[in-house]
Design a protein that fits this description.
Elements (H helix, E strand, L loop, with lengths): L4 E6 L8 H15 L3 E6 L11 E4 L7 H16 L4 H8 L3 H16 L7 E5 L6 H7 L8 E4 L20 H14 L2 E4 L2 H10 L7 E3 L22 E6 L9 H13 L7 E6 L6 H4 L7 E4 L4 H10 L2 E5 L5 E2 L6 H7 L3 E4 L3 E2 H6 L6 E2 L4 H17 L9 H6 L2 H12 L1
Length: about 400
């Protein structure tokens, strides 16, 4: 049987630039582990190689009208403080830089079409879907194109409390309507995101496939940061603290837990690791002896910490529904420590953990969060091994074996 070939067109494979890139790299590694022959075209703007995988850095197109217009736009903003994007993007939907990046990706597709893949997979990150836009202009690949949709798109279609409509969102909706029509398959990391997006773009219906963020462990650092004390009961949230994900209910609940169990003040810590610039002023008022805030920690060290802390936190927004599967969810499952899940009753994380999962609360229910922290602490005091959480069902769901089976279903 011939080895199936997959062409992957991805925006970034730099694991240090975003959670989306981390998820992309884990998916690529697990596809390789599943036995597929891969060619990865990436627009990371620097040379990066993944073990045993052929990776080609896409060169930026520097001799096009869009390139020069994008540079002129930047100069005008720098010199005169005039942001032309708010005038141009409502008309065109995207920036000159976006269109030039798309052209750069199209050039690479043309150059490497001789790879003759069985499947073409487009991956992106954040609010950008440049590889997907480029693929629209490459009809020869449409009958083997799987478009991976990692988040709702555009921002206009985000669930509450994300209520921002970006410039040119109507053009972005047109783009995704065309994408939904032309792709062969639409892959989503979560069931709830699939439901959300097919409700917005009906042409995705019948094309859906669920490929969750992957459990893949690369080289994990053996070092631990100086601020971590292994003998203490440590609750950690790792990840960006966005405006819509404030940590203050968790912090107040943690402080109340310490008031209720005073002896815990000597041996309990709350760690907040990740960008928290939006909440900088308020976090500056928090007592530092029990709450430790770090804006940045290397990816490998963060993974190491997730395995060493007592409890990992997944913090979601106050909302009716959270269709997102957090990129750190597989890391938390691999860590085999309890997850303190703070988010809506209807969320992908809760769906996977199960409605009977004990350590869940709405983000703002401080009384319940306090009680859960007390329960976890008492279990830790009795025996630290009580806090082991082994979910073989979820490990399998997030594994290369499951991924391989899902891909082979469509290729066969």
């Amino acid at each position: 049987m011939l080895q199936k070939k997959i062409l992957i067109v991805v925006e970034s494979i730099d694991v240090d630039d975003s959670s989306g890139s981390k998820a992309n790299v884990a998916l690529i590694h697990n596809l390789q582990q599943s036995g597929f022959k891969l060619l990865v075209l990436h627009y990371t703007r620097k040379e990066i190689q993944l073990a045993s995988i052929k990776c080609i850095a896409i060169k930026e197109e520097k001799f096009s009208a869009n390139y020069f217009l994008s540079r002129i736009q930047r100069k005008i903003q720098h010199w005169f403080g005039v942001n032309l994007a708010k005038y141009l993007e409502p008309k065109f939907g995207f920036s000159f830089t976006f269109f030039n990046d798309v052209q750069s990706i199209k050039n690479a597709l043309e150059e490497y079409k001789v790879f003759n893949p069985d499947l073409v997979l487009t991956l992106s990150k954040g609010a950008s879907f440049r590889p997907h836009y480029a693929m629209l202009n490459y009809p020869n690949f449409h009958d083997k194109w799987m478009a991976y949709i990692h988040d709702p798109y555009p921002f206009h279609y985000y669930p509450e409390p994300y209520n921002w409509s970006e410039p040119g969102y109507t053009k972005k909706i047109e783009f995704f309507n065309e994408l939904a029509e032309k792709c062969k398959w639409a892959a989503f990391p979560s069931e709830l995101l699939k439901e959300w997006m097919t409700g917005k773009f009906s042409k995705f219906q019948g094309k859906e496939i669920i490929l969750p963020h992957q459990l893949f462990e690369n080289q994990i650092s053996k070092e631990l940061p100086d601020f971590f004390e292994t003998e203490k009961f440590t609750v950690m949230h790792a990840g960006n603290l966005m405006k819509q994900r404030p940590p203050f209910h968790l912090i107040r609940a943690f402080q109340k837990f310490l008031e209720n169990i005073p002896e815990a003040k000597k041996n309990a810590h709350l760690l907040l690791i990740g960008n928290s610039s939006y909440h900088k002023k308020e976090l500056g008022k928090v007592k530092k002896s029990t709450v430790i805030v770090r804006n940045y920690l290397e990816y490998e060290k963060t993974q190491r910490l997730q395995k060493k802390v007592s409890v990992n936190v997944i913090l979601e927004s106050k909302a009716a529904v959270s269709p997102f599967l957090p990129g750190k969810f597989p890391h938390c499952i691999a860590a085999e420590k309890p997850i303190l899940l703070l988010g809506p009753k209807k969320s992908e994380s809760r769906r996977l953990l199960g409605e009977e999962y004990p350590y869940w609360s709405e983000i703002d229910n401080e009384k319940k969060i306090t009680q859960l922290l007390e329960d976890l602490y008492k279990s830790w005091l009795e025996n630290e091994k009580n806090l082991q959480m082994k979910r073989e069902d979820l490990k399998n769901y997030l594994s290369a074996d499951y991924l391989k089976a899902e891909i082979e279903k469509i290729l066969n």
